[in-house]
């Protein structure tokens, strides 16, 4: 008998547009021979499923069911494809935990913690061979904030919303004069801001997932962008960035990276598939942790599908495994 799956997308933030694009790819690759799939769009205004005739069916939030032509649809599991809040910060996960429906992502505590870049780094600090850039976590922006940062950190700097995603609100600061504007931009997106020293090196991102045979690491992707950094445009615009999968690393680097990301995945108590971003520092080859994304993008330009194909698997097979592990 087929399992009934809700593909949840949308969201409350600017990342909702990416969520909807991810959902299109996920929807095309979910195995209809195994699953009955209903796409559910969540926004600040409403939660609904739109049928093929364009009729919207509101979600009953008491049990996350929908009613279509007098039939109540209840879900065996949830495929979360919603970036940002409430699908990536633990809010939806907590809701599904309360009503007893399993889902494909990390649980509520891990989702909430990893959404906060500063808190995440504090937890993974101590993992062998994992390095963290010097940083300052800000909770307010005053007239002396920029000067205080420059007294503690060396330029250039990255300024980013602490709980944001898709590099929205992020800036690379090369001079002291640029810092106040970058802080203002980041604080428009979040009440917390992380300022980090720039680490010169090659940037990579790597998928880690919990499959039927335990936790596995996908091939890393090397990010080579014509932009100053891997920003929103670089992530989602074709031709701006070269993504090399598998990334160019020595056997020693590959083995070390795999060991580090496996340990980070376990220490953060991750589930499902996550993407960990890191830099191999120029000259030293040291692994510098950037962040973990617990709901990685699944658009046509996204990294995880590339990495899945690189190991000779289909996206359909990969999604099937994620669902079956989640709802077992």
Automatic annotation (TrEMBL):
What is the name attached to this protein's record? D-alanine--D-alanine ligase
Q: Where in the cell is it found?
A: Cytoplasm
Q: What cofactor requirement does the entry state?
A: Mn(2+); Mg(2+)
Q: Which InterPro entries match?
A: ATP-grasp, ATP_grasp_subdomain_1, D-Ala_lig_Van_CS, D_ala_D_ala, Dala_Dala_lig_C, Dala_Dala_lig_N, PreATP-grasp_dom_sf
The keyword Ligase belongs to this UniProt entry's keyword annotation: yes
The UniProt keywords, alphabetically, are:
ATP-binding, Cell shape, Cell wall biogenesis/degradation, Cytoplasm, Ligase, Nucleotide-binding, Peptidoglycan synthesis
Q: What class of enzyme is it?
A: ligase
Q: Which family does it belong to?
A: Belongs to the D-alanine--D-alanine ligase family.
- Residue ranges annotated as transmembrane are none
Which HAMAP family does this chain map to? Dala_Dala_lig
**What is this protein's function per UniProt?**
Cell wall formation.
Question: What is an example of a Pfam family matching this protein?
Answer: Dala_Dala_lig_N
Q: Which organism is it from?
A: Paradesertivirga mongoliensis
Single Gene Ontology MF annotation: D-alanine-D-alanine ligase activity
């Amino acid at each position: 008998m087929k399992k009934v799956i809700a593909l949840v997308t949308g969201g409350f933030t600017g990342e909702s547009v990416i969520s909807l694009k991810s959902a299109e790819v996920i929807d095309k690759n979910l195995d209809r021979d195994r699953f009955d799939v209903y796409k559910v769009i969540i926004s600040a205004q409403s939660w609904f499923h739109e049928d093929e005739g364009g009729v919207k069916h509101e979600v009953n939030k008491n049990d996350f069911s929908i009613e279509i032509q007098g039939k109540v649809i209840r879900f065996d599991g949830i495929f979360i494809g919603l970036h940002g809040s409430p699908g990536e910060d633990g809010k939806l996960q907590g809701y599904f935990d309360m009503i007893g429906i399993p889902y494909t992502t990390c649980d509520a505590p891990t989702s909430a913690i990893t959404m906060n870049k500063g808190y995440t780094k504090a937890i993974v600090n101590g993992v062998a061979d994992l390095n963290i850039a010097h940083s300052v976590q800000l909770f307010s922006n005053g007239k002396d904030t920029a000067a205080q940062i420059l007294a503690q950190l060396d330029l250039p700097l990255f300024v980013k919303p602490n709980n944001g995603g898709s590099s929205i609100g992020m800036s690379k600061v090369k001079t002291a004069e640029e810092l106040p504007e970058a802080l203002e931009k980041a604080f428009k997106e979040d009440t917390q801001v992380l300022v980090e020293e720039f680490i010169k090196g090659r940037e990579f991102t790597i998928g880690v997932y919990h499959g039927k045979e335990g936790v596995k690491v996908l091939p890393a992707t090397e990010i080579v962008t014509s932009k100053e950094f891997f920003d929103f445009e670089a992530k989602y615009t074709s031709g701006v960035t070269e993504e090399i999968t598998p990334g160019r690393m020595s056997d020693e680097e590959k083995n070390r990276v795999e060991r580090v990301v496996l340990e980070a995945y376990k220490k953060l108590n991750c589930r499902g598939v996550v993407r960990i971003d890191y830099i191999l520092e120029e000259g030293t080859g040291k692994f510098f942790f950037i962040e973990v994304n617990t709901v990685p993008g699944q658009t046509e330009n996204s990294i995880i599908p590339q990495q899945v194909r690189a190991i000779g698997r289909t996206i359909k097979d990969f999604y099937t495994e994620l669902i079956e592990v989640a709802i077992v």
